[in-house]
Amino acid sequence: MDNNNYKRLQQTVRVEGKGQSKEHAMANALSKIQKKVNAELNGMIIRIEPMNIDIVSAIEEIYTERFLLFFFPRSRSQFQVVMDVTVDLFLVNIENIDFKKKQRG
């Protein structure tokens, strides 16, 4: 592959996630990295490699859940995390690829 078709760069994206556990909140946030990068760049992404994660905020919200508004109160938690993730990106610039035309029929 020629160097003008292949590009490597580093970018920082801010993602956030929510979940019923710390693990779910982190997984939810990390799953949004590819969508966020695709929205900001054009080109086909071959690989996204996280290099650094900075936690901007991590919040545990505790609330009381009740059955039929009065019965069986129990304490529940919701976790929310916002982080800046620095990623190493490997892109193929599709615009620079010279496709040969071949007609059939």
The major pleated sheet works out as: 3 strands, antiparallel
The number of strands is 3
- What gross morphology would you assign? elongated
Average pLDDT metric: 88
Structural class: alpha+beta
Round the Cα radius of gyration to an integer and report it: 21 Å
SSE order, as H and E? EHHEE
Side by side, the strands of the main sheet go: 1-3-2
- Estimated helix fraction: 10-25%
The proportion of strand residues reads over 45%
Count of discrete alpha- or pi-helical segments spanning 4 or more residues: 2
Which residues sit in consecutive blocks of at least 5 with pLDDT less than 50?
none
> What's the N-to-C terminus distance?
31 Å
Q: What's a concise summary of this model?
A:
The chain is an alpha+beta fold.
Describe the model:
Strands 1-3-2 form a three-stranded antiparallel sheet. It is of the alpha+beta class and 105 residues long. The mean pLDDT is 88. The radius of gyration is 21 Å and the shape is elongated. The relative contact order is 0.32. The chain is built from two helices and three strands. Helices cover 16% and strands 57% of the residues.
